[in-house]
From TrEMBL, chain A:
Acidic residues bias: start-end ranges: 68-82
Protein name: Uncharacterized protein
High-level lineage: Bacteria, Pseudomonadati, Pseudomonadota, Gammaproteobacteria, Alkalimonas
UniProt source species: Alkalimonas amylolytica
Annotated region (Disordered), positions in chain: 63-103
Top-rank taxon, per record: Bacteria
TrEMBL record, chain B:
UniProt superkingdom: Bacteria
Domain named Tetrapyrrole methylase: residues: 5-214
Name used for this protein in its record: Tetrapyrrole (Corrin/Porphyrin) Methylases
Pfam families the UniProt entry points to: TP_methylase
Organism: Alkalimonas amylolytica
Length: 103, 261
């Protein structure tokens, strides 16, 4: 099956000028492949090629989040810092109240 | 400097056609290659270049936050760098264009004292300019990730091109979907029709992934956007709707400057 990949790679490197001069289906390397592969290549049948090469058909390709995760993490940290600050203040206030009552 | 190194390379958009000789050499010489490309055949093509190629695809799962997937991708690449290996991340297109993972992995690797850098590739944006015959220098060109365009109040210039990426998942705040439906696109249309007439012609574009494919270049009216077909690879290109408006005040001041000098 490596030869299919090789042929695809060569197709990717074939200029339009070369394509005009000779049909790729006449390429000797391609003629050595099973008929179903030749047909899939000639007709651009990607689904069939996926099956022949047994590659994953479902591929996800998004790589970019709409919102900056670093900014979100920072905002979350800031919120947590703010919560911690309020908690500490509440603890200090409670300790102060207790001392006053004890006094 | 620590042992271990990270290089994120671009494989380009079209199998065999776009990868740079240098990026290919990095893939061939790496101890381990992590790959994320846009189709299974291209993944197998990268596998043919190195004995240890590991796909990042399994980190994606419908219903799982893509952000979580991205973070796991960064982590798994860095673990090999920390183990002292020469690691290559091979990403389709350009590894630094609309791609959080390579940027993040390189930044963390550097923070931790490892050598890390990026090698550019031919991006979908590059293909778009060639296939559509657009020069971003003619009227200017704005690019947004489609959801970002919806979430934030972006200042749009309708005299310039507007390109919205990842339109197939536009509006997905959860980052857990692989597609969003008509109702999401209706909201996108609402946001766009503030700046563009409904009968404005727009282009749905997909670059060539395999050399036996053709680029998708479908012209539709803006109002038909909600019912148009989208995949994760589709990009929306909106040509200018207004001619460029001269900045008369600035031109007057520049003329005065020219007279003085």
């Amino acid at each position: 099956m490596t030869s299919i990949i090789n042929i695809l790679e060569k197709m990717g490197q074939t200029t339009a000028f070369e394509k005009e001069r000779k049909k790729l289906s006449l390429d000797s390397e391609m003629l050595e492949l099973p008929l179903e592969v030749q047909q899939a290549l000639n007709h651009g049948n990607v689904e069939q090629l996926n099956q022949i090469l047994q590659v994953r058909a479902q591929v996800v390709c998004g790589l970019h989040p709409a919102e900056d995760p670093d900014q979100e993490d920072k905002e979350k940290d800031d919120e947590e810092d703010e919560d911690n600050k309020h908690q500490k203040l509440a603890q200090l206030k409670s300790a102060g109240d207790k001392l006053r009552h004890a006094g | 400097m620590q042992h271990g190194r990270l290089v994120c390379v671009g494989t380009g958009m079209t199998l065999g056609a776009h990868i740079s000789p240098l990026s290919r050499r990095y893939i061939e010489q790496a101890d381990v290659v992590f790959v994320l490309v846009a189709d299974g055949i291209s993944e197998q093509w990268i596998e043919s270049m190195n004995a240890d190629v590991r796909s990042l695809q399994p980190f994606y799962q419908e219903g799982k936050s893509r952000l979580q997937s991205y973070k796991e991708m960064v982590k798994v690449m860095l673990a090999e760098v920390q183990a002292g290996k020469n690691v290559v991340g091979a990403f389709y297109g350009h590894p630094g264009v609309f791609a959080w993972v390579p940027h993040k992995a390189i930044a963390i690797a550097r923070e931790q004292g490892y050598q890390a850098h990026m090698e550019p590739g031919i991006s979908a944006e590059d293909c778009l300019y060639a296939d559509l015959g657009i020069d971003p220098g003619t009227y200017g060109c704005q690019h947004y990730e489609a959801s970002q365009f919806m979430f934030y109040q972006c200042t749009i210039n309708p005299s310039a091109y507007l390109v919205l990426w990842q339109i197939g998942v536009a509006g997905d705040k959860s980052l857990t979907r692989f597609s969003t439906g008509i109702s999401y696109r209706k909201l996108l249309l609402e946001a766009l029709q503030v700046h563009y007439p409904l009968d404005h012609s727009v282009i749905l574009y997909e670059a060539i992934g395999l050399p036996l494919q053709k680029a998708r270049i479908d012209c539709v009216l803006l109002k038909d956007l909600p019912v148009s077909e989208f995949s994760l690879k589709t990009t929306l290109v909106i040509p200018p709707a207004l001619s460029m408006q001269p900045n008369r005040e600035m031109l007057k001041r520049l003329a005065m400057l020219n007279e003085q000098n």
